[in-house]
Automatic annotation (TrEMBL):
<dbReference type="InterPro" id="IPR002347">
    <property type="entry name" value="SDR_fam"/>
</dbReference>
<dbReference type="Pfam" id="PF00106">
    <property type="entry name" value="adh_short"/>
</dbReference>
<protein>
    <submittedName>
        <fullName>Uncharacterized protein</fullName>
    </submittedName>
</protein>
<dbReference type="InterPro" id="IPR055280">
    <property type="entry name" value="TIC32"/>
</dbReference>
<dbReference type="InterPro" id="IPR036291">
    <property type="entry name" value="NAD(P)-bd_dom_sf"/>
</dbReference>
Length: 176
C-alpha cells in the first residue's frame, strides 16, 4: 500500500528532488522556518537547488550556518541567507518580520516547518506554554504582520505550506 503511487505519480517514498525535478523557482523568495535541521534543512536545500532565494529562519544560527554552507557547496551560485527567528518569542517574531521587510524582497513561499514536541512544561518569555507558543502562536503572529499580509494579498505566486508531525494525525484519530 505504501509503495503505490498516487495520481501525481509520486508515493511516500518519493524524494523532494524527484518531486521538484524540472521545476524552476528562479526569481522566488522562500522563508523556511526551522531550516537548521531535518525537513527544514532539506526543504531549504531543494528550494535553493531549484533557484529560489532561501531565507533560513532559525533559532540556532550556528547550526543554520553549517546547513547554509553545505547547501551552497552542493548548489554553487545558490542564494541562501540565515536570519534569526525564535517562534516562542513574539518580540523575535516581530523583529524577524521587520528585518525581512527591510530586505525589500517579496515573499513568495512561506514554509512553516519549525516546531517543538513533547517538551517539559515551561512558559515562553510571553507567558505562553512553550509548545503552543512555538508551534502555533509565533507563526500565526508572523502571518499577521504587515509584510506577510501584503505579500499574501499582492504577490500572485504567494504560497504558505504548513508541516506537522504524523503524531498529530494519531491524536486526531484516537484523541489526546
Amino acid at each position: 500500500i505504501f509503495s503505490r503511487k498516487g495520481a501525481s505519480g509520486f508515493s511516500w517514498a518519493s524524494t523532494a528532488d524527484q518531486v521538484t525535478a524540472g521545476i524552476s523557482a528562479a526569481g522566488l523568495t522562500a522563508i523556511v522556518t526551522g531550516a537548521s535541521s531535518g525537513i527544514g534543512a532539506e526543504t531549504a536545500r531543494v528550494l535553493a537547488a531549484r533557484g529560489a532565494h532561501v531565507v533560513m529562519a532559525v533559532r540556532n544560527l550556528a547550526a543554520a550556518e553549517a546547513v547554509r554552507q553545505a547547501v551552497l557547496a552542493e548548489t554553487p551560485g545558490g542564494s541562501v541567507e540565515v536570519m534569526e527567528l525564535d517562534l516562542s518569542s513574539l518580540a523575535s517574531v516581530r523583529n524577524f518580520a521587520a528585518d525581512f521587510a527591510a530586505t525589500g524582497l517579496p515573499l513568495n513561499i512561506l514554509v512553516n516547518n519549525a516546531g517543538v514536541m513533547a517538551t517539559p512544561f515551561s512558559l515562553s518569555k510571553d507567558g505562553i506554554e512553550m509548545q503552543f507558543a512555538t508551534n502555533h502562536v509565533g507563526m500565526h503572529d508572523y502571518q499577521q504582520t504587515p509584510t506577510c499580509l501584503m505579500n499574501r494579498f499582492y504577490v500572485p505566486s504567494y504560497r504558505t505550506f504548513i508541516l506537522n508531525s504524523i503524531v498529530f494525525s494519531i491524536f486526531l484519530q484516537f484523541g489526546i
